[in-house]
Amino acid sequence: MQIDHLTIDVPQKLPSKDLLQWDQTLFKDERYFELDYIPEHFSHRDTQMRALKIAARPALRGARPINSLCSGPHGTGKTTAVLKLFEEIENYTDSVVPVFVNCQIDATRFAIFSEIYKKLFKYTPPDSGVSFKRVFKKITKYLIDQEKVLIVALDDINYLFYENTVNKVLYALLRAHEVSAEVKVGVIAISSDLSVEMSKQLDPRVMSVFLPEEVYFPLYTRAEVRDILGDRVRRGFYANVVPEDVLETVIDLVEESSDLRVGIDLLRKTGLRAEISARRSVTADDVVHSYERSRLVHLTYSIHSLREEERDLLKLIAEQEAKIKAGDLYKKFNEETHLGYTRFYDIVSKLDSIRLINTDFTGKGTRGRTREIQLRYEPEDVFSVLAGMNT
Ligand SMILES: Nc1ncnc2c1ncn2[C@@H]1O[C@H](COP(=O)(O)OP(=O)(O)OP(=O)(O)O)[C@@H](O)[C@H]1O
Ligand SMILES: [Mg+2]
């Protein structure tokens, strides 16, 4: 019988000792390779952590903290440093309330103040029917009555650079004390876009109250990358899963992409690939193969945060063979989506502010200067990420 045949056959087909069984894994704990995992062990950032703590210190005495601006390339630990700082503050006192805002998700003034409200009152204000003014008033009244100091981190603040949101948000936060001197608010802005100068984005009246201490996060050196990734490997994988020379290949690719996050994602994908092949360790070939997707980790993250019509426009831009004039692009976009010029213009500004496209004023249009739009990535990479979202 078929069944008998199978039961006899299976033992002979058991994997050899170098191969994994179905219920075995190479990962001691896969959590260490998730991109939002906050490392317990956060080394090589002592200078930056010290600067952030000095800026926050007045808050612990009930005074207004010093504003900070964390800048530096991708994957240099800016988000992690501020989350660590907030963790420490929360463990130390409840008279300082840190609120962490991911501006990719909360990109309007109302959404940001809703986050602050939620942290203070433990529930979200209703989306409709409540004005910003009322939310703002309740927040400031609470801070005064409870004698609490607020620190707001605006992560990836460049997502607020369109529609002038950044000025509206900072203005409301930083001038809150004008309502009453007892309101104490500090801001930590986080930006990975070195080509954008905050001072150019901000109104002079906002800049004059913001005046941040700059905290710079440089790229990690090769030795630092090795140390950080080696630590993850030891915590996340079982012994001998990642041979030394394979880790060096991962480090090479982190250097090539200038993003530590690529290395962390690469380790995970590499491990999964070896698991699928039922092997007990990873090879350089797994790494090279996994890099095809891991190198796009940042692009993937940015595209995932877009709304449908924003992705439609990005795809349309990727389909163009060369730079395209804004007017011509709008015609195509309007034909496809029937959306109007205002929405088109907003989306272009957003894609520009998150560095997916370049928009340069060049040449002459029929009515004066015209904008030319160009993708900042390889079109194939954009198509590949978009296709991955539909599977
Ligand atoms: N010193 C470090 N030790 C351990 N892990 C780190 C360290 N620095 C960064 N990481 C890890 O690298 C990844 C990227 O770090 P993080 O998100 O803080 O970078 P970022 O500077 O905010 O990048 P981006 O500008 O792209 O937002 C995270 O998964 C984080 O856990
Ligand atoms: Mg970040």
Bound ligand species = adenosine-5'-triphosphate, magnesium ion
Largest sheet: 5 strands, parallel
Describe the global form: globular
Which bin fits the share of residues in helices?
40-55%
Q: Strand sequence of the main sheet, in spatial order?
A: 2-3-4-1-5
The CATH topology of the largest domain comes to Rossmann fold
What is the distance, rounded to the nearest whole angstrom, between the alpha carbons of the first and last residues?
Answer: 40 Å
Low-confidence stretches: 1-14
Provide a compact summary of the structure:
The chain has 391 residues and is of the alpha/beta class. It contains 17 helices and 8 strands.
Write up this protein.
Helices cover 52% and strands 13% of the residues. With 391 residues, it is α/β, with parallel strands linked by helices. The chain folds into three domains: 18-35 and 220-295, Helicase, Ruva Protein, domain 3 (Orthogonal Bundle); 46-216, Rossmann fold; 305-389, Arc Repressor Mutant, subunit A. It has a five-stranded parallel β-sheet, sandwiched between helices. The longest helix has 17 residues, at 260-276. It is globular. The chain binds adenosine-5'-triphosphate and magnesium ion. Magnesium ion is lined by residues 78-79, 155.
What is the fold's blueprint, element by element?
Blueprint: H1 2-13, H2 46-60, E1 68-71, H3 78-92, E2 96-102, H4 109-121, H5 132-146, E3 149-155, H6 165-174, E4 184-191, H7 198-201, H8 204-210, E5 213-216, H9 222-236, H10 244-257, H11 260-276, H12 284-294, H13 297-304, H14 308-319, E6 324-325, H15 326-337, H16 341-353, E7 357-365, E8 368-375, H17 379-389
Parallel strand pairs: 1-4, 1-5, 2-3, 3-4
Antiparallel strand pairs: 6-8, 7-8
Helix pairs in contact: 4-5, 6-8, 9-10, 9-11, 10-11, 10-12, 11-12, 13-17, 14-15, 14-16, 14-17
The structure holds adenosine-5'-triphosphate (ATP) and magnesium ion (MG).
